[in-house]
Specification:
Two copies of one chain form a homodimer.
Chain A (H helix, E strand, L loop, with lengths): L3 E11 L7 H7 L4 E6 L3 H4 L2 H11 L3 E5 L8 H14 L3 E6 L1 H15 L20 E5 L13 E4 L6 E4 L9 E4 L9 H19 L7 H23 L4 H15 L13 H13 L3 H16 L4 H11 L8 H18 L6 H4 L6 H11 L15 H10 L2
Parallel strand pairs in A: 1-8, 2-3, 2-4, 4-5, 5-8
Antiparallel strand pairs in A: 6-7
Chain lengths: 395, 395
Amino acid sequence: MNNFTYYTPTKVVFGKKAEEQVGALVKEQGCKKVLVHYGGSSAKKSGLLDRVTASLEAEGISYVMLGGVVPNPRLALVRKGIELCRQEGVDFLLAVGGGSVIDSSKAIGYGTANEGEVWDFYEKIRKPAACLPVGAVLTIAAAGSEMSHSCVITNDEEKNWKKKGCSSDLGRCRFAVMNPELTMTLPEYQTQSGCVDIMMHTMERYFNRVENMELTDGISENLLRTVMKNARILMDDPENYDARAEVMWAGSLSHNGLTGCGTDGGDWACHQLEHELGATYDVTHGAGLAAVWGTWARYVWREKPDRFLKFARNVMQVQEMESDEKTILAGIEAMEAFYRSIHMPVNLRELGISGLTEEEIQDLAYRCSYQETRTIGCIKKLGRKEIADIYRLAQ
Amino acid sequence: MNNFTYYTPTKVVFGKKAEEQVGALVKEQGCKKVLVHYGGSSAKKSGLLDRVTASLEAEGISYVMLGGVVPNPRLALVRKGIELCRQEGVDFLLAVGGGSVIDSSKAIGYGTANEGEVWDFYEKIRKPAACLPVGAVLTIAAAGSEMSHSCVITNDEEKNWKKKGCSSDLGRCRFAVMNPELTMTLPEYQTQSGCVDIMMHTMERYFNRVENMELTDGISENLLRTVMKNARILMDDPENYDARAEVMWAGSLSHNGLTGCGTDGGDWACHQLEHELGATYDVTHGAGLAAVWGTWARYVWREKPDRFLKFARNVMQVQEMESDEKTILAGIEAMEAFYRSIHMPVNLRELGISGLTEEEIQDLAYRCSYQETRTIGCIKKLGRKEIADIYRLAQ
């Protein structure tokens, strides 16, 4: 087992009507002027924003509003948020939405609490020294940003958009309010993309080169089986409270560090492959992950067959075949079959990206390898050539 | 799934040489004067105290020392600690030891940060409004106090000693330093009592009346299987690092709230039954829990057979028998067989308490029921009569 640090200070308030506690939670933080940050019109229409602001008002907390966050949240809006926070003397950022809204809030938090160019933190030129406190009212179970230390922003200010992350404990949410009922009205595609995203946060950590961490492996395997079971339930019964609750809680546990304890950190190649697709084609994150995972798995499994064997047995619970190779490949196929069963893509064409030219593939790979300055993944280190192979094979 | 709050702000630094980070961790908290609180001579002899104080000195942090904490930590020493903290202007409590030392530190923290009688918090007359910050260097995997909000103190100032708990998020450790190597020299009895304590923290939550929380159940079942496997390994190979690490991490996860998410809080009758034994006979906590569990289980299972059936199947993995009743009883027996295999008692006689008179049993039950003012347990509510039954049957 590797040494590790586990730090999850976020106070989770989980269950029905949890959003009514928002005002009290902000007050507990000693904050007085809130930026309520949100996405589109659904939070307004559903009455959620009204309930949240009523809860703030009941505690005598004043607020300003900033909507308009889109999936793959944009740097331009982050700048607008920073300006607003400075103008208004905001001392708390309340994200009402999913991972995009939370990430946009964290970025605003970094930008407001530190001088200088906020994008520096995403280009890794500087590290943030502080962050305005952030809290979340979660409406999508997917990104896990409500308990994670990560934050991914898309820079839409240059010709080639860039999707980059900044990870820091400073940005961890002070609290996360999670009412599974709030996710019941999501369209199937978003619900299921979320399920894939949740699973991939655990799988990226599960596929690593350390063997001896039974507790973490067991938690991960159980989490993956639980999400699969409940994702299937939600296909037929999207208003099933318990299924929504299992998926929502799994989303937080999947990305708060728990499923990585004792590992070497994990592979994360699929996330990097998807980030480039997200920046270039603006695809839904979870769907993008599903579209590349199977190809990645077949490309790399020979480098760590025991891990893929354990995955086939304990997660996919496939029948033992006449050779380990066949069992491993059956495990990968079983996961793809699961993705198909929840209407998720298992290749780029199904994701909506067809007819890539070799030049486009090479461009994607060049950018994904940061102009050939890095490799991605730990099961197999992937440079520009290997990245291009995977994009090509994933078509 | 029930609504829940999950709050585990403790920063865990886990692994080899973790104790060398103590100075930096205290500094991160902005504290300057530490009370190093510990138990007997082993922390001194092993050189651990020297390494810890060297780490504090390296960061320019001054400290005073207070040793002498015993299992079932005493109120008298807590009072001494409070006095010392006030005299010396201590602003941080560093517990170097196991659950007893951490609980004694938390109690000192409550007593120093609040005016008035500290025992009030344990008699539930008042709630603490503050606590000095506490950190832990863990040397025994058992109590889970390093991540829990609980703290149990034995009042040794009256004729009948009382063992009572105070639970508050204010007392949660700021950090927990966990190096599994520090637990390698523990005697077998302490190691295995620790394993029982860890398992019981999960089992007390697992046995509850809510059914639909798959993620929590799966985490709990895996945790229990993992601890049993590694407890057995430690019987033959007490210096097995990975086994020590699995048990140590399980100890924290077992009592930080994770295995209770979505439940009704759990049963906890066995803990209350043991508290009375601990206060009266000063037995080792984990061993005391093992000694009453089987009797408790046979006494209550008919009130919630589905839960005991799930336990038999998923935790003890017993063969399906011709009736549910037989499978359930086989599950209970399998757990007792496990306790025996790690040299833990499964009745009071094996715990070292023999020949209780009916009057002694009635006295224990009277005190355990708080003079007949409460029931314990949720699977079956146990009043004075039922508590006496269990003590009698557990002989």
